[in-house]
What we know:
The chain has 325 residues and is of the alpha/beta class. 34% of the residues lie in helices and 18% in strands. The protein has helices at residues 19-32, 48-60, 86-92, 105-114, 130-137, 148-155, 190-193, 196-205, 215-218, 233-242, 251-261, 309-320; strands at 7-12, 37-43, 68-70, 121-126, 156-162, 209-213, 222-223, 248-249, 274-276, 280-284, 290-294, 300-305. Bound molecules: calcium ion.
Amino acid sequence: MTHSIPTLLLDTDIGPDCDDAGAVAVLHALADLGLAHIAAAVCCTPDAAGAAALDAICAYYGRPNIPIGTNLPTASHLKPGWQKYNLYLAAHFPNRFQAQPAPDAVRVFRQALATAPDAGVDLVSIGWFTNIANLMRSPPDDISPLGGAALMEQKLRRIVSMAGCFDASRGAYNVGCPGEGIFDTERGEFNIISDLPAAQYVVQNWVGELLFCPFEAGAGILTGQGLTNAQSPVYQAYARYTEGDMRRSSWDLVTVYFAVCGERSHLPGRAQLFATSPPGQISLDAQGRSRFLPKPGGRQRYITNTAADAEIAAVLEGLLCRGDA
Length: 325
Ligand SMILES: [Ca+2]
């Protein structure tokens, strides 16, 4: 069977949680296996260390020239605990942004889209929606005569996003900073509430396919304990974030894996790991809590797990540690 390899744009909030670093490692492992192509990657936080850490991981896995951008840094919006590893990675691993800032994420994405074939790119989002909303609103420029929404409609096949929660019994708040509620049913999921207006704008206005990999899909899948090489930036991310425990939920790993491989494992035998909801419509309330309404012809869906957490964890762990020799 032949099928086209997905070309991906990655948008990450690398810093507040180590699963972003893990997801970047998984993405490179899938690219090394010939299953994906990484066209560009951007950071959605206003933290200059984010793009630097992202670039450092890409360089470590042998791709030092991937176009990388960032939400333009500002002094606000950073919380204690959000730099447990990205400052270290930025300072200790080679990257292009130690002496100069990364370019604007919207320009990096516009450039990648403008040069892509029509319907040739998937956008994978494992952070909040700031960059995507800004991209949708971006005006025509020297890169493309199309505004952002039209450019995305022409070039994007779909958006796959770690976001939301559709299992009310699980709660919906995936931040991992000590002292903050892990299972807070009164708040929306972290990637949504971190920039709720942006999330609402994307959910309400993106006309193409939108697929959520929700909180409950990754929460129980623990990965990271197989990382052993202290020379690896991803090992350092997990060691520093988990303070040596080396286990973390796999929200972002699940999302990049699903974006590349879909419902079935890439391994021989191709076990089904995930299922996709019927088409419908996602809505976000004023607190950022997500709801799903099935609707024929809808272009929004979410995934659920069909395999045991341990089985999915084993698949992801193998990829996470593949380049950690
Ligand atoms: Ca993330």
